[in-house]
């Protein structure tokens, strides 16, 4: 497994998260005046933001899942065929990526649950 690919993946993830946080705060400042005046615009912006957040979580979870599969496959074959320390390192990295995959999948699942609850709450408020 090329180490440069793993380094790029991890650094891209870190920088993407940092830039995402900065974009979110800038977007809140930019849309603050428009959303305060018009609740329909605020709802559309919130829906678009929720969909983008969910999609980003799923993309990150998929990427970590692929990295998990590659590290586990490479680690298993390295333990059997080449230096065992390299296989052990790859297997450890595979376990780390698996934990990150599970974390991101749980966060995506929580986002979906919160979205459903919010929609249910809005429907109940409309009925009353």
Task: Summarize the structure in words.
Keywords: Membrane, Transmembrane, Transmembrane helix. The chain crosses the membrane at residues 54-79, 85-102. This protein is 95% helix and 0% strand. Helix 1 runs antiparallel to helix 2 and helix 2 packs antiparallel against helix 3 (84-127). The chain contains three helices and no strands. With 128 residues, the chain is mainly α.
Summarize the structure.
The chain has 128 residues and is mostly helical. The protein has helices at 3-37, 39-81, 84-127.
Order of helices and strands: HHH
Q: What helical percentage do the residues reach?
A: over 70%
- Give the averaged pLDDT, no decimals: 81
What fraction of residues sit in β-strands?
under 5%
Keywords: Membrane, Transmembrane, Transmembrane helix
Transmembrane segments: 54-79, 85-102
């Amino acid at each position: 497994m090329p180490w440069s690919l793993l380094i790029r993946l991890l650094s891209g993830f870190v920088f993407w998260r940092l830039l995402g946080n900065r974009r979110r705060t800038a977007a809140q400042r930019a849309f603050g005046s428009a959303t305060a005046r018009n609740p329909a615009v605020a709802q559309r912006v919130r829906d678009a933001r929720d969909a983008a957040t969910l999609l980003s979580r799923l993309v990150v979870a998929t990427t970590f899942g692929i990295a998990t599969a590659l590290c586990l496959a490479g680690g298993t074959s390295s333990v059997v065929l080449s230096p065992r320390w390299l296989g052990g390192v790859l297997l450890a990295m595979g376990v780390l990526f698996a934990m990150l995959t599970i974390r991101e999948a749980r966060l995506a699942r929580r986002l979906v649950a919160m979205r459903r609850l919010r929609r249910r709450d809005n429907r109940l408020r409309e009925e009353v």
